[in-house]
Structures are given as C-alpha cells and as structure tokens.
Design brief:
The complex is a heterodimer of chains A (about 290) and B (about 500). Chain A is of the alpha+beta class and about 290 residues long. Chain A has two domains: about 1-85 and about 260-290, Immunoglobulin-like (Sandwich), CATH 2.60.40; about 90-260, C8orf32 fold (Roll), CATH 3.10.620. Helix content of chain A is about 20%, strand content about 40%. Chain A has eight helices and 15 strands. Chain A has helices at about 100-105, 110-115, 115-120, 145-155, 170-175, 180-195, 255-260, 285-289; strands at about 1-20, 20-25, 35-45, 50-55, 60-65, 70-85, 160, 180, 200-205, 220-225, 230-235, 240, 245-255, 260-265, 270-280. Chain B is an alpha+beta fold and about 500 residues long. Among the domains of chain B are: about 225-320, Rossmann fold (3-Layer(aba) Sandwich); about 360-420, 2-Layer Sandwich (Dna Ligase, domain 1). Chain B has helices spanning about 5-10, 35-45, 45-65, 95-115, 120-125, 130-135, 185-195, 200, 210-220, 245-255, 310-315, 335, 340-350, 365-375, 400-410, and strands at about 65-70, 80, 85-90, 155-165, 170-175, 235, 260, 265-270, 270-275, 280-285, 285-290, 320-325, 355, 360, 380, 390-395, 415-420, 425-430, 435-450, 455, 460-465, 480-485. In chain B, strands 3, 4, 5, 13, 18, 19, 20, 21 and 22 form a nine-stranded mixed beta sheet that branches. In chain B, a hairpin with a 4-residue loop joins strand 18 (about 425-430) and strand 19. The chains are: A alpha+beta (about 290), B alpha+beta (about 500). At the A-B interface, strand 2, strand 4, strand 5, helix 2 and strand 14 of A face strand 8 and helix 11 of B.
C-alpha cells in the first residue's frame, strides 16, 4: 500500500462581474479495485456549500452554485488516497490464445456492449489510410503485446512539448505534427485503436510527483484498453509506462470532453482565465524524512 | 338578378382527383355515408353566408393569437395564421377504433425500444435492428445510457403522422417522439366549429378533444419522482420567438402550470428550483418544449441560453423528471422507422395493427429484383445513415442516374432499403380564389399520451391540408391549412 496526499487548486478570474454560476469539477480521485479515497476536504473562496453528483460514467463531480456577484473564484480540493502496490500490472502470459482473443473482440454482443469505446469521437477520429502500417495490429501476437509495443512506438514518435496544442486538438492533427502533451498522446493512441475496433477509453488523473514523469505538474491523461482476459488495462504513451501505483485515476470517458476537470456556466458570459495547480505527495516518504 | 348559389351547387360541381382516395366522395362521386349528415346540412347554406362564416373563422384565429412564424420567410417575425377550413374531416367510430389501438401499440413498443437501446441493448444483440443504425445516429444520447426514467416512459407525448393511401388504408408516415406540436390547433379548431356550426356539431355525436389538457396533466403528474405527493410541474418554453409559443402558453394555462423559460429555473444540490417572488420553489416535473440540444448548456450545446445548467445531472440523479425524455429522437429517425413493425413484433409478440409504408430490403433476392425493376417509382435509403443522408428519389432521377444507382445497390445490397412513394388522400376543401370546393391532400397528426400505466389517445387530431393544388407537403411551416377532425361516436 502507498498513500498519497493530493491537492488540486483552481483559480478563476472574470473580467466582468458574474452574478450566477454553476461549476462542476471532475478532479476527485475515484474509488476502484486499485485505489480508495480516505479523506476529502473542499474549500472555496466564496465559502459556499458544495455538493456531489455523478457524471454519466458514474464518477463523482464536485459542484457549486454561486448566486452572488463575484470576479474571483478559488477552489481547493485536498484528499488522501490509498493505492495498492501489488497485482496492478499484467503480463503477456495472462493473454488468451490469439484466436480466442479475436473471437471475443469480434463478437456482436461485445461490440454492442463496448460501442462507446469503439466508436471514434471528433477528437479521436483518424482516417485509416493515414495510419502508418507499422502502428497497426498485425494479429501475429497477443493484443497485450501489441498495446505495449504501440505504447513505446508512439512515445518515440511523439515529442513532448507544451503550448503547441489546445484542448480541441484532434488526433489527426497530432498525426500530422507529432508534438504535444498527454491528452494529445492519448487521443492519438485512442484513434489508432478504435480504428481497429479495439475498445479503449480516455483516463484523467494524477501522477506521483516523486517520480520522473512527464506531465506530473498538471492533471495527467492516459488511456485504458480492454483486453479480453485482463479487463481494462492502463497505458501511458506520454511516459511509455503501464499505469501502476504511481497513477491515481479520477475518471474515464470517450475522450477529453468526458473528463474535462472543470465545466462551468456563468451569467452573464464574458472573458475569463483559469489556472490549475496540482500537488501529489507520497505520504510514507514524508514520514520517513 | 343573379340566382343565389347554395353549397349544394358547389358539392355537385366538385372536381374529381383521379388516382387518389377521396375522403368525402366515393369513386362514383357519391358522398360517403359518414359525410351525408354534414353535407345535407351544408347543402342548404347560401354561399355568401358560408363565405362570411369562413372569414369569421379566420379572424377569430387571428384574434386569439393562434399564429405561427415561418422560419424560412424573409419577413421574419410576421405572424401568420394557420388557415382553418370549415368543412371537417370525419372518421367513423370503427375506423378510429383500429387507429387508436394501433397508436397505443406502436407507442408502447417504441417506449420499450428506447428503454432497451439505452440499457441492455438486446434488440441490437439479437440483430433485429442493426447496431450501426443507432450508433451513427446523432440522437443516440450518451446522457441517457444506463438510466431509466420514472415509470419507464421515455415518450410521454407522441405525435404519429398518418396518411390514407390510394388503396384506402391508413399508413404511418412518421413518428414524432421529441417535442411534437400542433395540439393547440386541434383545440382551437374545435372551438371554432362549435361557434360557427353549433347545431350541426351538437347533432353529430362527435367525440370530445377538450379532455386533452386534463389527460396531459394527469400523465405529467403520474411520472413525478418517487415520494413526491403533490408534484410541482412547469412548462419550459424557449420563449416568445418560438413558432409554437402560443401552444406552450395555452397548455400551461389549461393545465394550471407555470410557463417558464430557462432563466427562471436553476439547479442547486441536484434539485431544480423555480425563482418566484416568494423565493425558490422546487420543481418536480418539467414539460419541456426546448429541444435536447438546448436544455442544458453543461451537457449539450454550451452556447445555449434557453436551458438550465446542471439539469441533466439533476435528472439522472432522479430528482426531476423530463417530459419527453432526452434522446428519444433516435427512435423517430427515418431509417429506424422501417424497423418499427419488427420492433413491435420483438417486444410485444403481436402483429402491428397500423401499417408502415412497405419497405423492400435489397439484401433479400425478391425485394432486390422488385427494386431494380421499379426503381423509378421508389425512394431508396441507406440503412446505416440517419438524418436523411444518401436518399435516392427514383422519380426525380434521370435514366443515367437510375442505371448508375442500380449498380450502387447491387454492389452493397445490405446497405439499401426502398419504399414506394405514397399517394396522400384528398378532402374537399373550400378554396377562396375559385369560390369552389376542390380536392386537397391531407394527412393526420395524432397525439398519444403515455403515463405511469396509462395511455390516452386524443380522439381525432390535426388534419393538415396542403393548400397549394397538387402539393404533397402538408406542413404548417410550408403554407398548409387545417381542418377540425371529427371522430364519430359508435351509434
């Protein structure tokens, strides 16, 4: 077991006075087979009560309604997350024989049940003809091996660079110009897998800042691929890693739009700026020091 | 002195419309049995008096504010009336009985279909409806996945459009499962008939339509969230600029509900509240006349100012119900339409009571041969594309286009279905310009309400008239008119 202290802070500034707003933050680590939220505190600069709601995929949103004039808004979420350290990673030997694996992936029931993760979205869509052949599944080895292989190929093909892409950069743009940040790596890999009918989903979360990872100063993005005998397997092309005890998951969805950390609606509308900061500290380390 | 003209003369001079079913006259130009009473009555009316009555009907519609805006019009914002023709359309009791049973059956099956495709998806796994068809539909809403609204009803108000083909049979032309409109014309047409032709109306044993609002209120209340005894229900309108605003206001008034706009509501702690001068009031059911795309800027179009931010979250949390549910548009798609008979058989294990326009599936050999031989009479549609894309209209295509398209079909038989073009029935309609009764094409928009374990079908509906001669499009936004629709009581 490893325990993390995760602190997420957002600061919004509005050029004109806002009189009414509803904010939804998707920043709270989820509780699943590998992790558990032990403690959670939420503070906001307006001292208003917050409430929780589930999003479409069942992940917890922190919501807040403001019905008073304001131009600044700050939110701080602090929580303690306990993460399993064993049994997180899969190995090739767990794979079904290739033939059986393909049979599952191609069955009607399976496709119907996973269509949301097989169907391209506007952010992930890629013209099949433009995907380099060596990035496609040749069906000569288990799916798991193809995924780890694709993970490192994309990692090597891409150049990590901030400020060259935005939240609306699409996988096809990334294929043309292979530079960007975690969500660009993720959308590209999602696009390639979905083009081959392999179910996969976008994941948002945090990285252990005690490790040398790219993208750990902000919320991170990686993906999960459905592998028949293993279930959803986390893959991080930005760091060429499989998601392990250093990965703290918040939510998943079809693409970034389902996992955007902040969605808000303000009245009256006007120009605004938002900044996010993230702090992830491994607690046991703190105590040892 | 000019001899006086009575309507009797007009009825005698009625021109035939060969090739179409005439609702009033049979093939030998005899007046059909169920129209005799009214034509006998009208025959004795002087043309001049009838013209005055017609003018009165027109003016009263305008004064009541029963108008609509034509969006395609260059003179935006001009209010127009939906012209009302005094000669009612009459449906005998027995004919109506079949229609009513058919509508109830169809809407029950469509509600079961919606529940299934948003949850277990059995009909897709059993390959009764192709999955590609739904997955490609922009109306298949992620926000409805793995969620069942109260009472398992998705479509509380359904507007099914019926036509009568040249074979004398009724066919369903399309389903309208989103926010169907038109009921206000039904209610106001009836008021006009009662005012202008009172004796005739009260002697004709016509089934009432006035109970619609009461039934709608019952349906809306019946689907309130569990544990709410006296639900607060509101009508949500996009506002005065919407073409159906009159209807929103009328229904709110008749049901005793508040008529609200998006800015009057807000969401806090996953409940919906209405701003009132006495402070916030919790809202339990929203009869929304705002389209899916606009109801919640945090879920759908972020630029919408017509909706309520956070509404979808409150809805999925079970704290408010929406009438109709979002995402119902997936089931009234033109391509899904062709599968409705299969959908009825699949869920109800019954034969459909109302006919669908026949569909030829090119994957079947016999159907393919028929389609190739009769391509110039048919409309061909791809099965896996929604929203009217890729439709081929045979009678508008050149010889070369017909030849080319046959090859396209043969190359991908599974992809195509074909349907005959339908010949809408005609009804005698008074035409001012000629001062005569002339045949005009009509259809019938019916209204079915589904609540918690109850179904109500409005007895009659909106008979729409294509006022331009030979025009087959019967639609209020295309310059059509309407008639009162009389469903007769069993003798």
């Amino acid at each position: 077991m490893v325990t993390y202290q995760v602190i997420y802070e957002a600061e919004n500034h509005y050029e004109h006075e806002v009189t009414e707003a509803l904010f939804k933050f998707l920043v709270l680590p989820c509780t699943d087979d590998t992790q558990e939220v032990l403690e959670e505190t939420v503070e906001n600069s307006l001292d208003l009560p917050v409430f929780h709601a589930s999003n479409v995929f069942g992940y917890q949103l922190i919501c807040i309604r403001v019905a008073q004039p304001f131009q600044h808004f700050k939110l701080k979420v602090s929580c303690t997350v306990r993460k399993k350290t064993t049994g997180m990673l899969h190995i090739t030997e767990e794979s079904l024989p290739l033939e059986e694996e393909l049979k599952v992936l191609q069955s009607e029931d399976f496709i119907v049940d996973h269509f949301l993760y097989i169907q391209q979205t506007s952010l992930t869509d890629l013209p099949v003809a433009r995907i380099p052949r060596d990035l496609l599944f040749q069906k000569d080895k288990p799916l798991f091996d193809y995924i780890t292989d694709l993970n490192s190929r994309l990692h090597n093909m891409m150049e990590y660079q901030t400020g060259v892409t935005t939240f609306s950069t699409r996988a096809c743009d990334v294929l043309d110009n292979p530079r960007g940040v975690c969500q660009d790596y993720t959308h590209l890999m999602l696009g390639i897998l979905r083009q081959q009918q392999i179910p996969c989903r976008y994941v948002s979360g945090y990285l252990n800042q005690g490790q040398v990872f790219l993208g750990s100063l902000q919320m991170h993005a990686w993906l999960e691929v459905y592998i028949p005998s293993m279930g959803w397997v986390g893959v991080d092309p930005t760091n060429n890693m499989m998601s392990d005890q250093h990965y703290i998951k918040v939510a998943d969805g079809a693409d970034f739009d389902d996992c955007s950390p902040l969605k808000g609606h303000i009245r009256p509308t006007g120009p605004n700026t938002t900044s996010h900061t993230v702090e992830v500290v491994e607690q046991s380390q703190q105590q040892q020091q | 002195m000019i001899p006086e003209t009575f309507l009797e003369n007009l009825l005698k001079d009625y021109p035939n419309a060969p090739g179409f079913y005439d609702e009033v006259f049979d093939e030998n130009k005899y007046i059909r049995e169920h129209y005799r009473k009214i034509t006998d009555h009208l025959a004795k009316i002087r043309l001049e008096d009838f013209q005055n009555m017609n003018e009165y009907a027109r003016r009263s519609s305008f004064e009541q504010g029963i108008t609509f805006n034509v969006y395609s019009d260059t003179s935006q914002g001009v209010e127009r009336i939906f012209p009302f023709d005094l000669l009612p359309r009459i449906i005998p009791a027995k004919e109506w009985d079949t229609i009513e049973r058919g509508l109830a059956q169809r809407n029950l099956a469509l509600n079961m279909f919606l529940k299934d495709i948003y949850n277990e998806k059995k009909i897709l796994k059993d390959k009764v409806v192709p999955k590609e068809l739904l997955f490609s539909s922009q109306h298949y809403s992620k926000y409805m996945m793995d969620f069942v609204p109260y009472s398992q009803v998705y479509v509380h108000i359904s507007g099914t459009d019926l036509i009568r083909h040249s074979d004398g049979e009724y066919y369903v032309l399309e389903d309208n499962l989103r926010t169907p409109s038109g009921i206000s014309y039904v209610l106001s047409n009836r008021i006009s008939t009662k005012r202008i032709l009172p004796t005739l109306f009260f002697n004709s044993n016509v089934q009432p339509v006035v109970d619609y609002s009461e039934s709608l209120l019952e349906v809306i209340k019946s689907v309130a969230p569990q544990g709410v005894d006296d639900p607060v229900c509101v009508v949500l309108t996009p506002g005065v600029y919407n073409s159906a605003y009159y209807e929103h206001a009328l229904l709110a008034l008749q049901m005793g509900m508040q008529l609200v706009e998006g800015r009057d509501l807000y969401v806090d702690h996953n409940f919906v509240y209405m701003k009132t001068i006495h402070g916030p009031k919790k809202v339990d059911v929203i009869y929304r006349r705002v389209d899916d795309d606009y109801i919640d800027p945090l879920a759908f179009r972020p630029d919408s100012t017509l909706g309520v931010p956070g509404l979808m979250t409150a809805y999925r949390q079970g704290n408010v119900n929406l009438v109709n549910a979002p995402g119902t548009g997936v089931a009234d798609d033109k391509a899904v339409y062709t599968y409705v008979p299969d959908i009825i058989r699949y869920y109800l294990n019954e034969e459909p009571i109302l006919k669908n326009v026949h569909t030829y599936r090119c994957e079947k050999d016999n159907d393919l041969n028929y389609v190739l031989e009769h391509l110039n009479e048919l409309v061909v549609k791809p099965v896996d594309e929604s929203g009217g894309y890729g439709i081929f209209i045979g009678n508008k295509a050149s010889q070369q286009e017909l030849r080319d398209f046959k090859e396209v079909i043969k190359a991908n038989r599974r992809k195509y279905i074909a349907q005959p073009t339908m010949a809408l029935s005609v009804h005698a309609t008074y035409i001012e310009e000629t001062g005569m009764f002339e045949p005009r094409h009509i259809d019938l928009r019916t209204f079915t309400l589904s609540g918690d374990r109850s179904t109500y079908v409005c007895k009659g509906g909106l008979t729409r008239v294509a006022l331009r001669k030979g025009n087959l499009i019967v639609n209020s936004s295309q310059g059509g008119g309407s008639k009162d629709t009389w469903v007769l009581q069993d003798e």
